[in-house]
Give the backbone structure.
Amino acid sequence: MEFSGVEFRYAGGGTPRSRRAVVALGVLLAVLVTGCSAATSESRQADETPSSTRRAKVDLSTLPDATTFGTTPDAPSDPAPRSGTDGVVLRVKREIAVRDSVGGEAIARLPATQFESPTWVPIVAESDGWARVLLPSRPNGSTGWVRLGTEKVHKAHSPYVVDVDVGNRRLVVLENGRELGSWSVGVGSVDTPTPRGRTFILASIRETVSDFSPIILPLGTHSETYTTYGGGPGTVALHGWPEPDVFGTASSDGCVRVPGDALRLLRSLPLGTLVRLR
């Protein structure tokens, strides 16, 4: 299956090998040493809740955006931030309402794109035709429930997990539990630590302003020290670094700096792939 430049291959439960054409943003990417940000524009429309709840249509324009630029103050927190998932990811093909519980109150709007990449988010629980997903908005660890079984969403599976041991400054990529690669990486300093918890690969961006990394992979989490990186929303990312002496050190502003061969593998992973920062 291919969605807007992100190619997923799923055949009989086998292993996907995605080859992603990176999104080139048509806006200036402001970067402050370790961060990346960009502006997006997203359409708004009404979303109808399931008839079983007997709720009126929701005006999505009144809801906060569940994007890296947004804040969703009423979103429930991740109930198991140290856990893994079953690898199920959700593609949002049309913007939808996010609710605080199964059939509950609408608390946010989840659009079909993030950084102009298609929206894929990990599912952390399912119940009665609803899915609880990780959100890319502040505060970190935000989650919400979206309705399944409509033309607005599509489920798939990613066998990959990116495991970042922040304390030991090591990144491991796993496929169905099998290690594909392990690298010493740079992480946030004591004063600007890398946030902990489970998050996901939100988008893939070709860097056109700075030359410290050809590709930036924003995650669905943010710096808990800075509110912004160079004018952006303070999105934490996986990215390269030209000076190898940073690997194995705690010296970044919160992002995870990876060697070139690690970046080449990471950029091939499907959007929505789980990233555990522990």
Residues 1-54 have pLDDT under 50 and may be disordered. Helices lie at 260-266. DSSP finds one helix and 23 strands in the chain.
